[in-house]
Design goal:
428 residues; mainly alpha; 19 helices; globular
C-alpha cells in the first residue's frame, strides 16, 4: 500500500459503515485506552480529523491498537502507513518480546470487538493464556476492553436488544473462562466481577428498553455474580440497577431498599458514589410522594458531589455520573413531584453540561424538558422541544416519556394549535 498523501478514505469508509461521528469514535477509543492502561485516552475530534484527512499517517501505539480493536482489522487495512522503523504486527509472537509496550497492548486490544457493531459473542475457543493453560491478567484486560466498548455503545444508543445480547454473550465468556481454566483467586474474582458487569449492562439495557421480564432474570444472575466477585464497586452498580428495575415495576419501597444496600458497600464511602446513591434515593422518595425527603436527598447528593475528587481513578461504568447526571436525576425527581419550574432549571443545567457522546441522555432530558414546559402552560414551547428529539432516539424510556407527554398535552391543551400539530404529525 502506498503512502497516505490524501484523505484516508479507508478509515472514513469504516466510520460510515458503523455510523460513527468523529466525536463518537474519539469516545470509544478513549474508553478502551482507559481500560487497558488505567488512564483515559486523550483522543479528541481533532485527532480523528487528522486521521481521516491523512495528516496523521501512522497513529501512536495506543491509539492505533484501539483503532484496530474498534474496527476489528489492522491499522494498514484502515489506510495507515507505518513509518520505516515501526513494528508491524506481521512478526511471529515469539519475536515480539522485545518490542516494548506495543505487544502487551496488542494482545489485549486486538481481539476487542467494536461496540458500535455489537453481535452476540461466544466463548473464545483458545483464550489468551500465559502458556501454562491458566487464565491470566491478559484475559481480564481483553474482556475489560470489551466492557468499555459496551458502555460507550449504551451511552450512544440506549437499551437496545443488540446491546443486551452482546453483554450476555460476554458474560458467558467470562464465566466460561473461570469454569474451564485454572486461575489465581484474584483473577477468578476479576472474572466474576466482569461477568457481573456484563450481566448488569444486559440488565440495564433490558430496563431501558422496557423488557422487564428479561431484566428480572438478569438481576438475579447479576446479584449472584457480584457477590462471588467480592468487588464492592460492582456490588454498588448492581444494587443501582436493582433500584431502577424495582422503580419500573412500581415497587418503590424495594427500590429504596436497593439504595440502602448500595450505601452499605465500601464504595459508598467515596463521595462520588455517595452522591449518586443519594440522587437515586431522591427519585424513589419522589415516587412515594415524599417531597421533603426527596429534596433533602438531592441536597445530600449535591453536597457530596462538591466534595468528590473527580480526578480519582474509578471504574469506566461510573464515568456517566457527573454534574450533568446529577441534574438529570434532579430533573427526574422534580418532574415526578410536579415542581415544573425547578424541573426546567435542572433540564437546562443538564443540557449545558452533558457530554456530546451521551445521546440517549440528551434525548431523555429534552423529553423531560417538554413535560416541564407543558406543566407551565406553554404547549407551543413544549411541542417545539419534543420535536428536537431525533427519530432514532425515540425508543425505550424516551418513547415512554413522549407517549406520556402526548396524553398530558391532549388533557391540558386539547384545543391548542400545538396539540393539533403534535397529533397530526404523530399519526403520519
Amino acid at each position: 500500500m502506498g503512502q497516505v498523501t490524501a484523505a484516508n478514505e479507508q478509515l472514513k469508509a469504516r466510520m460510515r459503515e458503523l455510523g460513527l461521528t468523529q466525536e463518537e469514535l474519539a469516545e470509544a477509543l478513549n474508553t478502551a485506552i482507559e481500560q487497558m492502561t488505567g488512564r483515559r485516552g486523550t483522543v479528541s475530534a481533532r485527532t480523528i480529523h487528522n486521521l481521516t484527512t491523512g495528516k496523521t499517517r501512522w497513529p501512536q501505539a495506543k491509539q492505533r491498537l484501539a483503532l484496530e480493536a474498534v474496527f476489528s482489522c489492522t491499522a494498514i487495512e484502515l489506510g495507515f502507513t507505518p513509518h520505516a522503523r515501526s513494528p508491524v504486527d506481521h512478526t511471529p509472537p515469539a519475536s515480539k518480546q522485545n518490542l516494548g509496550e506495543e505487544p502487551v497492548l496488542r494482545r489485549t486490544f486486538l481481539t476487542t470487538a467494536s461496540a458500535t457493531a455489537l453481535t452476540p459473542l461466544t466463548p473464545d475457543p483458545e483464550p489468551c493464556t500465559d502458556g501454562s493453560g491458566r487464565v491470566g491478567q491478559s484475559d481480564v484486560n481483553r474482556l475489560a476492553a470489551r466492557f468499555a466498548l459496551i458502555i460507550a455503545n449504551d451511552n450512544t444508543t440506549g437499551g437496545t436488544c443488540q446491546v443486551e445480547q452482546a453483554a450476555l454473550g460476554l458474560s458467558q465468556q467470562a464465566i466460561h473462562l473461570q469454569k474451564t481454566r485454572p486461575a489465581s483467586q484474584r483473577v477468578r474474582g476479576r472474572l466474576y466481577g466482569l461477568a457481573a458487569a456484563f450481566t448488569g449492562s444486559a440488565l440495564w439495557a433490558a430496563i431501558d428498553g422496557g423488557r422487564l421480564d428479561q431484566a428480572q432474570q438478569h438481576l438475579n444472575d447479576a446479584i449472584a455474580l457480584a457477590g462471588l466477585s467480592g468487588d464492592p464497586a460492582i456490588q454498588f452498580r448492581t444494587w443501582g440497577h436493582a433500584g431502577a428495575l424495582y422503580r419500573n415495576l412500581g415497587q418503590y419501597t424495594s427500590a429504596l431498599a436497593a439504595d440502602e444496600a448500595a450505601k452499605r458497600t465500601r464504595s459508598a464511602r467515596d463521595p462520588l458514589y455517595a452522591s449518586l446513591v443519594h440522587a437515586r434515593a431522591a427519585v424513589h422518595h419522589a415516587d412515594l410522594r415524599d417531597r421533603q425527603t426527596a429534596l433533602r436527598c438531592l441536597g445530600f447528593a449535591e453536597t457530596a458531589l462538591e466534595r468528590a475528587d473527580t480526578d480519582a481513578p474509578r471504574p469506566v461504568w461510573l464515568q456517566f455520573y457527573d454534574s450533568a447526571e446529577f441534574h438529570l436525576l434532579a430533573l427526574t425527581t422534580t418532574t415526578t413531584l410536579g415542581l415544573w419550574e425547578q424541573a426546567e432549571a435542572h433540564a437546562h443545567q443538564t443540557l449545558a453540561k452533558l457530554r456530546p457522546d451521551l445521546k440517549r441522555n440528551r434525548a431523555l432530558t429534552c423529553a423531560y424538558l417538554a413535560h416541564a414546559q407543558l406543566g407551565q402552560h406553554e404547549p407551543e414551547l413544549a411541542v417545539g422541544t419534543a420535536y428536537k428529539i431525533p427519530a432514532q432516539a425515540r425508543h425505550g424510556r424516551t418513547a415512554r416519556l413522549l407517549n406520556a407527554f402526548g396524553h398530558r398535552l391532549h388533557t391540558l391543551a386539547p384545543d391548542s394549535p400545538a396539540t393539533r400539530e403534535w397529533f397530526g404529525k404523530e399519526l403520519l
